Amino acid sequence: MKLDKKEAATVTDAIRFWEDTRKISPELANELRSSYEVRNSNVDTITRYAFISAVSCGLLAFGALVIDEKWVELLRKKWEFSEATVGMGFSVVAGVFIYLARRRKRKYPNAEISNESYNITIALSVAVAIAYWTRSLGLFNGHYAQPLLIATVVYGLIGGFLASQLLWIAMLLSLVGWWAVQTYEWTGGGFRFAGMNYPLSMTLWGLVIWASSWLVEKTKPLMSFERATYTFGLVLFLFAAWMLSIFGNYDDLSRWSAIKQGTLWYWSAGFTVVLAALTVYAFRSKNDTLRDSCLIFFLANIYTRYFEYFWDRTNKGIFFAILALSFWWVGRKAEQWRNQEKTA
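The chain above was modelled as a monomer; its predicted structure follows.
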């Protein structure tokens, strides 16, 4: 088992304490010490960034070759393939990659980063297959709700089968996209669903996804996706709530532009109160993900309010000086928290 330096130091100290107090024998202590090794964080960092670069280049290449449908459509028209045939072909490609990914995961269970980057081919192949299948079956017709709903189900099933965090996140993205498009279609092309504009609707939808992480955690086959679901739902909730604090519940840009931003003070005040409450809870419960997310959006909230109310009234040099000091303060606090954790 590989541990980082901090984890390894904690385990080593614990083994030494047990050995000194004669709770374990020297033989068992040596056996425990040999059961783990220190992970090279520099190599891990280089590996992570290398795979991020590889995935980014792969996405760009796929987008240039497939998303714009130039070469696929040229081949389809040249060989007179139907859309169903193209959909079937990419389904076979996706199936082959799923089989290879499953076999690779069993062979290299600890190569998490490379395994996940390998799964990007599955996500892209499935996307093209769904696009052509829905077009061939007449489910598309300029509407994206049904393809996105199908993609949500397919990505969820494959993600669960391969225990892939990447495919699970693709499922969550498809789910959010489906909700946005479906509410648009339900309103007949409007931007207000059940009295809610998009920011308010997405705030509630993010809250639903965030809360669903509790259900995911309680479902044994899906337990490994709890953290991804929790983080995704939290970020979506905070981002949509931040947008809500700017636009209020307006669904018309011209009407929103005609009002003074001060008339929406209750939305920004509500967002600030929610952030403050969540930040306090995060510190008390020692929830790092919630704490860091809230602090980021707290800064975004402060700067947003400044641009709304004080941009034309404050010297720009003073503003950027305050900006620099605030980032220094955040960095200083982060350093203090890290030192406190090391001391503990």
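The chain has a mean pLDDT of 80.
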